[in-house]
Sequence to fold (668 residues):
Amino acid sequence: MSKEKKESSKKSSTTQIVKGRLDIARSGMGFVIVEGLEQDIVVRPNDFNHAFHGDTVKVQINKDSGRGRRTEGKVTEVSERLRTTFIGNVQVNKNVAFFEAASDKPIPDFYIPVEKLNGAVNGDRVVARLVKWGKSDKKPEGEVVSILKADDVNDMAMKELLIETGFPLAFSQEVLNEADKLSETITREELKKRKDCRDILTFTIDPVDAKDFDDAISIRNLDNGNYEIGVHIADVSHFVKPDSILDKAAYERATSVYLPDRVNPMLPEKISNELCSLRPNEDKYTFSVIFQVTNRGEIKHKWIGRTIIHSNHRFSYEDVQQIIETEDGLHHKALLLLNKLAKHYRKERFDNGAINFSSQEVRFTLDEKGKPIGIVVKESKDAHKLIEEFMLLANRTIAEYVSRIKINKEPVPFPYRIHDTPDDEKLKVFAAFARKFGYTFDIHDEAAVAKSFNNLLKDVSGKPEQHVLEQLGIRTMAKAVYTSKNIGHYGLGFEHYCHFTSPIRRYPDVMVHRILQECLDKDLKPDKKMEDKCKHCSDKERKAMEAERAGNKYKQVEFMRDYLGEEFDGIISGVAGFGFFVETVLHKCEGMVTVRDLSEFDEFKLDEADYALVGVRTGKKFRMGDAVKIKVVAANLEKRQLDYHWVQDDGKATLDAAKAKSTTRKKK
Fold:
């Protein structure tokens, strides 16, 4: 072997390549965060190799780094882009155009061919998409997707939120063309493969403003005195085939994003609102779980497979709630029976260790321009719980079925929805805090923790401390994620669980449908990339939640701008060293009271164990869950930030007395 070949062989054998996420600081220096590595890998700007901030990359670690200094490396490949769409301005000079991204992270200018300006002129604020960046290209090439109008500030803000979190604003024409080719015709060939459920009473129950109906319930009496209840889910996988253009677009998004004034869908509207939406009086392809149950809720038989249904009616949650409360209305006997069974399954879940966290949904009433003119707090009622229980039952049934199937004595690679047990240290802190309100908390094992949570949530209901203890309880919990490594769902008390019931808006459900059909056909094709796909879906879900929270915050700030200078009752919803957060009782809008604004009264320090800010001289406490009065002093839309000032209430005299006492002590 030649000397050159020996050197090359030696070099390749010591080369280490790892995968991680690139974080680019404002200074321009990059850091690749790799799971399992204690230290980030430093990457210099010249070694980004066309990667942007947030991209998942492969990085080659420099051979000589890591010996007493920071590990350095260079990006060898961009595995996955966080985002391909950006907001910024175009600069047009004769036949040359460039796009400059508006970002606090360094992003190179895009070259825009003039034929891809799509009507944009010099100085326009636009949305641009990365088209390509070849190895030999100095600059990335892009195209203008849309022009942002300065008068539509709200629209621009919502689009920026989506882009910041890595969600494309629109589908490419290629994807839309593929969707348009799909036919809604029910074919004889397809009918032969499915159970025909069209003659069974079937209906959907959804929010009043919903357009995509991805689940329906059917019910009928059987001759043996039992009931047949079907949970029917839109058969998205019939239309969206693996590795197709449509599939790749759906996987890239992995979830729909629900902002206060819009939905950024995972699938084109042709699929989500037409082909797969289980609209009334239309035949639709579905994937179903059909249960035979007794009137006591005992499940005697389960059937899983593809079906065709015909929805007889579209109910809103409000419609069904009225029927439940009045025991009268269209299909009231069926709905009352389903509600009775749902309550039975709900009780059974909690008896078996599920945790009963209540949920409140804050929704904005918007005018025609998207400006919030009101806030409505919606609580989960029996109509919502009815649907929830049957969806949980279907999801659990599918996961249990797949978990029993083995390939070469190994589990089928499958996207389980798992929820780990709470962190012990967080639990200890929470238990100590709950004890201050008089609630005991047993943390000696998982079952005791679940039981303690449920007892606490029951006892605290309707009391001033309810909100704070519920919120802190939720924070002790692990985050639910997708993974092929099934450890069960602690919060639901299920050994096996997955997402099967919302394939229009969640990509894991599409994967579940495909694997399920393979299991039924006994034609399994194990996906070796399942864990990577699960991680991608979990990451996109987290990003969608970030966008949704930011969208809600934007609307809160926009709403409260009309109340500058006004005072409101609030509850302290969080504490930090720099101040405390307050959520208004009336509008559920959260803002910050800073320690700087409290400095005229005292110097305040954070007591982490007590979730409180404590005055050094006066001993005055601002503890999470305390009722306070605040004044709205600033509403910054750009930062999505509300600033409140604390307003002294009847406790002013007590505080003044404490201050006086403190001053007297000092003089002595």
Remarks:
- The chain has five domains: 16-80, 89-148, 177-351+359-403+545-550, 424-476, 564-667.
